[in-house]
Structures are given as structure tokens and as C-alpha cells.
Model the fold of this input.
Amino acid sequence: MEIKDAVFVYQMIEEKEVEWHSRIHNHDQREYEIHYFLQGEGKFRTGATTYNISKGSLFLTAPFEEHTITSTNLTRPLTYYAVLIKTDPRDFEIEDLLRKELQNSNYYNIGTNYRFFFEELREKGLSENSNLRKSAYHQLLSFLYQLSEDELMTGSGNRESVHIEKALMMMQNNIFSEVTLADITEKLKITDAYFIRLFKKKMKTTPMKYYTKLKVEAGASMLISSSLKVYEIADRLNFYSEFHFSRVFKQHTGVSPRQYRNEYRQITGNS
Done:
């Protein structure tokens, strides 16, 4: 089993983004997709069944199973993780597990305390480091077994994970404004030094570098899915200026915002 793709969709609101994520689609043989919703209002249709999306909703879809996401309230946009996994022909046990799960239900409500788990899964599962990818594989496998036995906890985990969970929520909810290290540690009631050490241990980067990465990812999404000018995107993301946004964006992606928009619009247009 491998994680083929993992994305974080923050506040699905731009017209082209809504259109893309609302399309009816399916995946190939041995490909299963997990959607985990953190906030917003909408509908998730899989096969002939339509579910209401609520905080903590999780949906599992099978190969070739058509599914679509519909946002029903743009004042409360959807935010979610999507993870695409592919099994190996030799993964008989995993295939049996997934098939049994899908016979029972496509839908689960696991609560909103798995933000850190899915973010870690995304970071590790797409890493160039093979050991981190293996780690993500085992974490996902454990999650699926717990899901099948209805053993996932909707309450809090250990104290360290809870701190990271709350920090991620603050960062993700303030992409279009500004949150400081002091804001986070004051909310968590821990020291800056302890939080930086804890965050770096769990996420392999510092809190503010990670927060900047989230803003760059949001900017990349807007460059592709909206007609906003670069300076307008910079302003919405609370960068000091268009130049500041462009410099930070290039540091993270290797290209300027305009180059990124031109290149990826051609890719998405062709596909």
C-alpha cells in the first residue's frame, strides 16, 4: 500500500476550486480515497447515497466508485484533507479490510481531533525520505484497523499531540490574517521554547516556517483557481507587500507566483 497523494483544502470558496472539487469523479483499480472534513457545510455523494458533511466527518470511497463534494453554504466553506491510497496486488489482508469496511459504511464521524494525524500523514506520505513514507504507511494501516473496530477516540490524545492539534487549528484558521508565536503559546499556556522544541520534534520544522508554508500553499491554490492579481493575493494572505509574497513564494516553490500560475494553469487546462 502507498499514499499516492494527500492534499489539504482550506476553505473551498474560489469558483474554479469549487468547480474542481465538486466534479463527479472516481479512481482506478485498487485506489481508495479518504476525505476528512474539519469545518464547513456541504454534501458528500458516493454512489447513490448522499450524506451531510459535518465537523469530523470521514468518508471512504472504493475504486471506480463515483463521488462528489458539494458546498452548500459559501459563508461556511469546507476545509478538509483528502488522501488517495493504492494497494499492491499482494496486499490481500488490506484489501479484505477495506472491502469489509465499505460493506458496512462509507461514512464515519471521528471528531475533529485528527487534524495533526492527517497533517503528519500528508507530510510523511509524500516525503522523499523512504523511512518517513514507511512510517506514514504504518500509521495509516493502524488507523484503518482502528476504524474497522470502531476504536478511534473522538476525545483528546496525549498532551503533546493536543498541543500540536490546537496549534495547527490556530494556524489553519488564521491563514488570511496573522497569528504569532506568542498568540499560540499564550493560548496553549506553555513557553515559547518548549513549544518550538515540541513542534519541531513532531513536524520537522519550526512553527512559523510551517505557518508560512500554509500561506504559500493557500496562495498557490488561489493563483490557479482565481483571477486575483498577485498583489491582491499577497494582501489577502497578510504579506507586507507583493514583493515580500513573491520572494517567500519563490523560496518555497522555486518559481515566481506568475510563473507558477502560467505553468499550472496550462497543466490543469490540458487535463
Remarks:
- Residues 267-271 have pLDDT under 50 and may be disordered.
- The chain has two domains: 2-148, 159-271.
- The radius of gyration is 19 Å.
